[in-house]
Design goal:
This protein has 432 residues and is of the alpha/beta class. The protein has two domains: 319 residues, Aminopeptidase (3-Layer(aba) Sandwich), CATH 3.40.630; 73 residues, Alpha-Beta Plaits, CATH 3.30.70.980. Helix content is 36%, strand content 18%. It contains 14 helices and 13 strands. The strands form two sheets. Strands 6-7-9-8-10-13-11-12 form an eight-stranded mixed beta sheet, sandwiched between helices. Helix 10 packs parallel to helix 13 and helix 11 runs antiparallel to helix 14. The protein is globular. The N terminus is likely disordered. The structure holds N~2~-sulfamoyl-L-arginine and zinc ion.
């Protein structure tokens, strides 16, 4: 039986593109947004997968999502040989053979996405749950960052800032009109970091799509100016080991930490308790099995060391956001101490900038410790050690797994705030 899933989300301005066709620009902001909007509507029934993934059954077969706005369009897809399983507002999903795909393209149907059935079935057990397929796992994130750089070689480059516990690279996309990779720059720098907590997957999407947006809009007057005058670093996935662990069974693990093996054989250190700022004094646990385990010592973990060394090596950094979820809050130091930061200018700049970004996102600006006091916090360390104006964004949502439909709005709001931060990165104190 066909299931009708005319769900809630319509993305304003989303342009449906031909994702499955040769030459499709998979790393463009519009394309990513259109995939998110369609995927947010799609919930593939696992029974259908089971039926079609018997050995040998998936030869030359694909799970496809095709644009189809009404019953007549759907009828034509059936006639082209597509097996429609899911019906959404503007698109349908289902199975298609290579032959059916050929028919679809000869009838000028818009194929929005296409995944071999074997890979699609694998997704059910080794990736985000199917309904959340719009989220990007480590490989997808890596591939997109590399595609973005390849498409904009004059202003973008990708490099690894270091390795994780399990040996994954922590990838950084850099946007700078004059310097590539790890070459130093004296231009004022902004650093956007995502997803140091494993289960906070929206915190990967926001900086990842920010990167795509900035590159797609590179010729807009304001963004053009920032690209030519600033040094912009985007690391969407700061804890790829944990993020991958969280999704690898196909159902979420509610996992927060990195993948360290602790002295008692338990797993993981909380990276946002492992930085050297009042390390493990408050709001952190010394019990290795705990979710807020601070680790055996400050900077015991490769991920926190890599972020530390990255920031220490770039004296030009002026502004920083570390994305987390969820609370709809914009937090500024201190988080490890009830006190305000002692420098009056910095305090006023934090309040003003958090307030402005709060207006753009609808999030509440707040001193971090007003949420709770927790030491070993990455933004406290970054501000204290480097002077960078560092903000923790707690993105929106009502739980750690808010579904794909939340992505587009969160991205849109947060791009505005991230661009505002770029607008002051040359001199954050000019707002005072
Ligand atoms: O507890 C954290 O690390 C952050 N919240 S989360 O739900 N993403 O884990 C909040 C960090 C804010 N910092 C402090 N209050 N110190
Ligand atoms: Zn977090």
């Amino acid at each position: 039986m066909k299931r009708f899933l005319f769900c809630s989300i319509i993305i304003s301005g989303a342009v449906l593109a031909r994702a499955g066709e040769p030459g499709a620009d998979n790393a463009s902001y519009k394309q990513l947004l259109s995939e998110i909007s369609v995927a947010a509507d799609v919930q593939a029934p696992e029974t259908a997968i089971a039926r079609d993934t018997a050995p040998g059954a998936d030869e030359g077969r694909y799970w496809v999502t095709v644009r189809a706005a009404d019953n007549h369009a759907r009828t034509r897809l059936l006639e082209a040989g597509m097996d429609i399983v899911e019906i959404n507002r503007d698109a349908v999903s289902g199975f298609a053979s290579a032959y059916a795909l050929q028919q679809l393209s000869s009838k000028a149907s818009v194929v929005l996405s296409r995944v071999p059935v074997s890979q699609y079935a694998a997704r059910v057990s080794k990736d985000f749950p199917v309904a959340d397929a719009a989220y990007h796992n480590f490989k997808e994130t890596t591939d997109l960052l590399k595609q973005m750089a390849a498409k904009n070689p004059d202003i973008a480059s990708v490099f690894s800032i270091g390795k994780t516990t399990e040996g994954r690279d922590i990838w950084c996309l850099r946007i700078n009109s004059g310097a590539k990779g790890e070459t130093p720059s004296s231009k004022p720098g902004a650093f956007y970091l995502g997803n140091i907590h494993a289960r906070e997957h929206l915190a990967n999407e926001v900086p990842l799509l920010l990167a795509a947006y900035l590159l797609d809009h590179r010729n807009d007057a304001d963004i053009k100016k920032y690209i030519s005058t600033l040094d912009i670093y985007i690391v969407p996935m700061g804890n790829p080991d944990g993020a991958e662990f969280d999704i690898k069974t196909g159902s979420y693990q509610y996992y927060r930490k990195n993948m360290a093996t602790n002295s008692d054989k338990s797993r993981g250190v909380d990276l946002n308790r492992n930085f050297d700022s009042w390390w493990c004094e408050a709001g952190a646990s010394t019990y290795p099995g705990s979710d807020t385990y601070c680790g055996p010592k400050a900077f015991s973990e490769p991920e926190s060391r890599v972020i530390r060394d990255f920031m220490l090596a770039r004296k030009n950094l002026k502004t920083h956001i570390s994305y987390h979820s969820y609370a709809s809050e914009i937090l500024y130091p201190w988080g490890g101490n009830d006190a305000d930061v002692p420098n009056a200018n910095d305090k006023q700049a934090f309040i003003k900038l958090a307030g402005e970004m709060g207006k753009l996102t609808g999030y509440q600006p707040l001193k971090s410790s007003d949420m709770y006091i927790a030491t070993g916090d990455s933004c406290d360390w970054a501000y204290a050690a480097t002077g960078v104006l560092a903000f923790t964004f707690e993105l929106e949502g009502r739980n750690f797994y808010p579904g794909a439909a939340i992505i587009a709005g969160a991205v849109d709001r947060n791009i505005k705030a991230a661009i505002y931060l770029l607008s002051v990165t040359d001199n954050p104190y000019k707002v005072l």
